[in-house]
Hints:
The chain is of the alpha/beta class. It has two domains: 12-158, HUPs (Rossmann fold, 3-Layer(aba) Sandwich), CATH 3.40.50; 180-297, Beta Barrel (Elongation Factor Tu (Ef-tu), domain 3). The chain has helices at residues 28-44, 75-84, 97-101, 104-110, 158-166, 170-177, 281-297, and strands spanning 2-5, 16-20, 47-52, 89-92, 117-123, 143-146, 150-151, 154-155, 181-188, 202-205, 216-224, 227-236, 247-252, 263-273. The protein has a six-stranded parallel β-sheet with strand order 1-4-3-2-5-6, covered by helices on one side. Helix 5 runs antiparallel to helix 6 (170-177). The protein is elongated. The protein starts with a strand and ends with a helix. Residues 190-194, 199, 201, 203, 217, 232, 234, 238-241, 249, 251, 275-278, 284, 288, 291 line the site of flavin mononucleotide.
Amino acid sequence: xxxxKFKEEDLDSAPTILVLGYFDGLHRGHQALFDKARDLAAxxxxxxxxxxxxxxxxxxxxxxxxxxxxxxxxPDKRLxxxxxxxxxxxxxxxxxxxxxxxxxxxxxxKYVSHLNIAAIVVGFDYRFGSDHGExxxxxxxxxxxIAQVSDAGEKISSTRIRQAVLDGDVSLANRLLGYDYxxxxxxxxxxxxxxxxxxxxxxxxxKHYQYLPAIGVYVVDIEVSGVRYRGMASIGYNDTFGGKNxxxxxxxxxxxxxxxxxxxxxxxxxxxxxxxxxxxxxxLITQMNSDEKLSREF
Length: 298
Ligand SMILES: Cc1cc2nc3c(=O)[nH]c(=O)nc-3n(C[C@H](O)[C@H](O)[C@H](O)COP(=O)(O)O)c2cc1C
Ligand SMILES: Nc1ncnc2c1ncn2[C@@H]1O[C@H](COP(=O)(O)OP(=O)(O)OP(=O)(O)O)[C@@H](O)[C@H]1O
């Protein structure tokens, strides 16, 4: 897949299926658009292109807070998902105040018309331009609007998945995504207390502005140097020890290496319980024994 900043002179000139949207998380609803795009690409001997934005359009409309930078995926995972879904050309353009003022007609003139469009694919609720135009206005192009993909009678959307993650309901998030929710980061030093209680943990700091699941204890897999291990994670303040910082820590099963500074990926599989402030270390250890049993059996 080629990642290209959208400029007229850099566009591929061969026929292409254009898929439009922001696609945070590339969930099962989004995947339906790419299923259609791949069928069309095969039928018309065309490539698949996406025209999207590096950051959320919402940044242009709302007072800033750090959450507006957050994504359901790391930047690398976002690219990998587009690639897995068959995208050949990923065109990026910044969503700015100027961009937001374009009407649907302007958008077609300035962007779409410079590509060699074989067909366009969007979702059932796709609107674009400052006038919130509908795809039917693009009548000069062959276009397809994909029906709503639902789960439990409700639209699968990035917003719904974000809420599930923030609620700690990673099982729901994973079902809606169609893959396991993951957070990647670097292993850093913690308080070095874990090893003294028989449960050493890799403390993980993410630098990607990803959503962290709710405070609690989770069954996880963790990928270290290309190998995936089972483990159990804690997200919280280590209440028993009066911790001040919120940490993501993973006790990796059957693993004994030093991995400070390594980039790892944590896959959240299931919420086990909330965080508990124990009266002493022994009660915490007893609880962690049963967390481990449950995690190994999951
Ligand atoms: C699976 C798991 C469950 C945990 N549950 C709790 C808990 O309920 N309450 C708590 O205060 N700390 C909990 N912790 C966090 C420990 O307090 C923490 O791992 C320990 O203090 C080591 O911290 P360190 O990595 O900074 O050395 C849990 C950790 C893990 C890995
Ligand atoms: N569940 C779905 N079924 C079918 N198409 C969808 C679904 N969700 C999104 N789409 C389509 O995918 C494209 C990208 O949509 P968008 O990035 O707005 O995702 P979203 O999940 O609806 O996000 P948000 O929750 O922020 O509204 C659009 O063309 C949209 O219509």
